[in-house]
Amino acid sequence: MSLNLTSGVTGSVRGIELGLISNYNYEKFQGIQFAGFANVSGVNNKLNPKEKLENTFKGFQFATIANKTFGNGAGVQISTFNTAASVFTGFQLGFLTNKSRYLEGAQIAGLINSSKIGMVGFQIAPLFNYSDGQTNGLQLAFFNYARTAGFGHEFSNLLSDTWQIGLINFSKVNNGNQIGLINISGKNNGVPLGLLNIDASEGRLSFRSTDLFLSNISIGTGSRFFNNMLQFGYNFSINGLPVWGISYGLEKEWSDPEKTKFISINAAIWQQKAKSIKLLKGPRILRSELIYGFKISKYRYLEIGAAINYKLTSVENQESSIISMGDLFPGIVLGIQ
Question: pTM for this structure?
Answer without folding.
Answer: 0.80
